[in-house]
Amino acid sequence: MLFGEHRPGLLRLAVVLLGDQRTAEDVVQEAFIGLIRHWSGLRDPDSALAYVRSAVLNGARGVLRRRAVLARFGVRHDPAIWSAESAAMFQEDRREVMAALRSLAPRRQQVLVLRYYLDLSDNEIAEMLGITSATVRSTATCALRTLARQLGEVAV
Fold first, then answer.
1. 16/10 Cα distance (integer angstroms)
2. Pick from 31, 37, 33: nearest CA to 54
3. What is the mean pLDDT of each run of 10 residues along the chain (156 residues)?
4. Which of 53, 80, 133, 143 has its CA 20 to 30 A from that of 119?
5. Other CB atoms within 10 Å distance of the CB of residue 106
6. pTM given for the model
7. Pick from 93, 152, 150, 147: nearest CA to 116
8. Which residue, 52, 55, 67, 69, is CA-closest to 18?
9. Are 32 and 4 in contact (CB under 8 A)?
10. Taking a C-beta distance cutoff of 8 angstroms, is the pair 97, 153 a contact?
């Protein structure tokens, strides 16, 4: 039930953060495998979704860190060509926004994706990222201003 209901949203989250479908699928699958592996140690089964969300976010962070290390050695990550599913999710008019989002600092990117893509509250985001709600709000404000500048929009 948890897998079937939440996998699509978690996969979209990972695709937004990572920029490629294949790696996103691996990250989400590993998150669910981790949940199954640690199910008996889960104090509250109702927190399983939060566990998997955090695992996806942490998995994506790990992939991005590895990419950054490789980039320092001149190894570029060229994502696979967008699959038909990815192309459907991100229409042409959104590609520019997605590229601008991926250019943000990781914390800013994560806050915006969690807030506007997964529709999490500031408190839920703060708990996931280990920061305060006030930091979530200020990070989102700065990130939105940066995106507006990059996209030539008027900042709100």
1. 10
2. 31
3. 86 87 92 88 83 92 86 70 54 69 90 85 91 94 88 62
4. 80
5. 14
6. 0.61
7. 147
8. 67
9. no
10. no
